[in-house]
Amino acid sequence: MFMLRWLFKALLVFVGISVLWVGIYRFVPPPFTFTMLGDVIGGRSVTKDWMPLSAMDPDMARAAIAGEDSHFCSHSGFDMGAIASAAWRNAQGGRIRGGSTISQQTAKNAFLFQGGGYLRKAFEAYFTVLIEALWGKRRIMEVYLNIAETGIGTYGANAGAMRYFGHDASRLSPTEAARIAAVLPLPKKRAAIDPRGFVRRHGNVLSRYVGVVRRAGLDSCLR
Questions:
Q1: 63: which of 105, 110, 137, 177 fits an S-S bond (Cβ 3.0–4.6 Å)?
Q2: Can you tell me whether residue 48 is helix, strand or coil?
Q3: CA angle 125, 59, 196 (to 5 degrees)
Q4: Residue 161 near residue 176, CB atoms below 8 Å
Q5: Using one digit for the tens of pLDDT, what is the confidence trace for 53-107?
Q6: Nearest Cα residue to 99 out of 116, 82, 119, 118
């Protein structure tokens, strides 16, 4: 009985702290993440430069939607169709594919660490529900595009634009935005400048889909 009471109190404390943490990040840019800490521990420097979504070129968010989560504006944090499709493809063998939405990736990047298996995924789902409820889509995209890794030790679309193209993310061509988006799935192994192989092919595809996202209103929740 004592153990149950202790577990219940611990659960209440966790819920209270996590809700407060998410609530603070609704208004305050996340100052540092566990992924950034991993870079520091590994002896790498961290480059980041926060830019509000309102100042960022809209094509950056459109490229992210095209490449990572085409149903971003219509789902409530989880795209069950994408998850089921990824599970089916993974069961066939070959390269492992994920079905995470931008909301899930944002929850992981802002509050958790990379890896960790099913326990980390459970916490990711919990924080995904919280940010969908407390932040809304614009804030989720804003945080995502500012803390997602866009290269080794480089975080956010703005820092990525400066690194790869020599200017900030307030003015990106569809091709530039698409190349940054193409790096997002494997930022430590890909580069948006002088891209080759998958990054070049995927970036070219995404640059064409940027206009599709705009015309189809797939970014309507961000306007």
A1: 177
A2: strand
A3: 85
A4: yes
A5: 999 999 999 999 999 999 999 999 999 876 656 555 555 555 444 579 999 999 9
A6: 82
